[in-house]
Amino acid sequence: MRWSTGRASRSAPALNARLAAGVRAVYRRLDRKIAAFRRRSGLACIPGCGECCRSTGVEATVLELLPLALELCRRGKAEEVLARLDAGQEPERCLLFSEQPLGRFGGHCTAYSRRPLLCRLFGFSSMENREGRPELAACRLLRQADPARAGQAAAMAARGRAAAPLMRDYGLAVYRLDPVLGSGALPVNAALRQALERVGLSLRLGSGSSRQLSSGARLH
Ligand code: SF4
Known about the structure:
With 220 residues, the protein is mostly helical.
């Protein structure tokens, strides 16, 4: 841990806030780029799908989840989320996914605006193939649902990062904010736990009171 005692501990909440602001800025940039790609390609998720959220392979770094951890603390939800993580129900599936329908459709992300990188990128960005050429990180279900549109999107993505965001660019942009917290992707629930613990510990060290953690309402 890069901060622990004395003066450094007092500045830890400020450091977390600064890092989270940096991550949010990368997310905003990426969201604009993805929105433009979606508009031009016509590619869109199948309403109410949620299959990628039901996967057990979603990974993130602690840094990517710092904005969400701060938000959960601010809203007094940190303890509740940690308790749910401790309860360990479906520990491999993202804890933030809810099967409750949102509107007419089933299943939704309960932290959509603070979701990590992979959740933003998947299906709407490109990765470099073995020859170093960009290739759409395509969603199998989208390809099956609308092969023509998916083919058009893949052709666009092949034109380069000006057409579709390149995953690596955004991973690097977050990593550069803090190479320690921004490396070593973990299963999303484990990354969320570490981000919450980091934020909670920094606040506890800053306030000098362990009881501050027990109520999110008192965290800020
Ligand atoms: S963070 Fe949200 S979008 Fe990402 S896997 Fe979890 S529920 Fe799905």
